[in-house]
Design brief:
Blueprint (H helix, E strand, L loop, with lengths): L2 E2 L7 E7 L3 H12 L4 E5 L6 H4 L31 H14 L3 E4 L2 E8 L2 E8 L2 E12 L6 E2 L13 E4 L6 H4 L3 E5 L3 H12 L3 E5 L6 E3 L1 E2 L2 E2 H8 L4 H15 L15 H8 L4 E3 L2 H6 L3 E4 L2 E5 L2 E4 L4 E2 L3 E4 L3 E2 L3 H4 L25 E3 L9 H23 L1
Parallel strand pairs: 1-4, 2-3, 2-7, 3-4, 7-22, 9-20, 10-11, 10-20, 11-16, 12-15
Antiparallel strand pairs: 5-6, 6-7, 8-21, 13-14, 17-18, 18-19
Helix pairs in contact: 1-11, 7-8
Length: about 400
Amino acid sequence: MARVSAHALPSRAPAVVIGAGPAGLAAAAELKRAGVDAVVIDRADRVGASWAGHYDRLHLHTSRRLSGLPGLRIPRHYGRWVARDDVLRYLAQYAAVHDLDIRLGVAALSVERFEDLWQVAWSRGYERGVIAADTVVVATGYNHSPKMSDWPGLGAYSGTVLHSSVYRNPASLGARDVLVVGPGNSGAEIAADLAEAGVTVSLAVRTPPNIVRRAVLGIPSQALILSMAPLPLKAQDALAGALQRVAVGDLRAYGIPKAPRGIATQQARDDVTPTLDVGLLRALKAGRVTVVAAVSRFTPDAVVLADGTELHPDAVVLATGFRRGLESLVGGLGVLSPNGRPLINADAQLPAYPGLFFLGYSNPLTGNLRQLGIDARKIAAATTSTIESDR
């Protein structure tokens, strides 16, 4: 089983992996397979804690067969679209099968280079310490910190406002009229969840999304996208667009015009993934979700939209995305782009910082979990190659 330990942390380790989610577990398992022992640290009290915090309805949007991490398939009885709680069971099983050295409740404070080693400062309760390591893999998650837009008047608004990361289910929200802000995957699924419970739902849309079916003719959209991946962006846009027109149709009558860019181009240039339909289209066509204009500002008792309309919902759910949240950890190294995303990912390394890797920050159309496995293998290969060259 996984060595989840509350004992003293080492002062020296071959590798430190920061984050015990899917990326961190995959990295540690592949490093171990390559003969490099890694200590995995995470501030949470369980592996895959970010998954535990997601809304109850959540299932993987990628198929089970294409979502397993290296060295362990997701059990078939979890079904094609794996539920949140089954993802958590799988991650716990993955850590146990690979006998990973996981230290929970340990927060990584900073990563710094000192002479020829990396220094990972950590805290656990009142304890403080540093682990020196040859290799550090930062795998804290693509969706780490909730992103809140700073609308005028939001601070003075008297109604209920919560980020999508806090939403669990319609019953816990306890509202009969809800405004969901943002038509991405979280916003679309939360809107569908509320509508199916009989809640009146308005969905505020600024930029029209590319909505695609989770599967077309029984084939997961992920598999279809994989088949197109070698093609140029324009060709991918054309093929995906043709499938989209057949499977989804024209949504202008429901308040959603055509997206400004094709699916592949939007992902590559804007870092915006398509919205996989898991109930929104049905709710739109049944009139249970109404698309409204983007939010412009708040007053003490209303939400004002870009077209001047005022809404008075019982609750506002902000599906406004997430930040990487890496500034406090590695911000001083100059390894982050202006939007907070690492300049490197997978086995790429900056010349000044050998042995520092980032995993899980590519957000590919072909599926995050699938890509984690591919990139974890690359990191392990790059690490062992460096060790051998230093001998």
